[in-house]
Amino acid sequence: MAETSLRSEQLDGILTLTMARPEALNALDRALKTDLLGAFRGAARDAAVRAVVLTGDGRAFCAGQDLREAGVSGAAIGREIRERYVPLVLAIARLEKPVVAAVNGVAAGAGLALALACDVRLASSAASFACAFGRVGLVPDSGVSWFLPRLVGPAWAAELVLGGDSLEAEAAARIGLVQRVVPPDELLPEAHALAFRFAQGAPLAAGLAKRALAAAQESSLEAALEYEAQLQSVAGRSADHAEGRAAFLEKRPPRFRGA
Questions:
Q1: Which of 13, 66, 213, 241 has the smallest count of CB within 10 Å of its CB?
Q2: 203-250: CATH number
């Protein structure tokens, strides 16, 4: 992994991924997209990773596609989205481990998409959010049109997409785009504390719960109830459930192993 593109640190079950192109506002070039995809796919395979925190270095979270990158224009934009952005967004959204976005600065365009694909978003008071696609004559991609209305509703999504204006952190919290806003120096400690709390849960159950939440967005109540029952049958047979039940009866903290 190129150290100048993405920094990775693992501690206490938390994998922290820091986009590290501060001179370019962490804009996404092919190296960074490749590194991010590899890191999230690696996190899926690594049982020692219980949760992930995604953030940016410097004054930006991620300014979106690096418009200076050669070969990403015209009809090639669609190919770039299919070959690099789609796999990355799916790797984040489908990771069966909690993912926390610690949005430290501007999150624009595809950078906004990365934040939206995470399970939870915390924002620094210095953060801002913008669709930005319209500013360069493009339409939302990388899942923005799917995630955004589900988070903030269709009217706010339309205003953000069609207006292209930047939304400050407190306003983003008011419409549900982020969970909460904290001072800049408290952002990473808060994100790590939340990720650590998530990591204390049963890993298998967390993954199944994420499946249930994702499926429920596209299903009827009856279908959601049936899928919950199916997933609960899987969780109920797990060693983690047996451990959790024993810990509850013995009045002690559970020791989940992810099986």
A1: 213
A2: 1.10.12
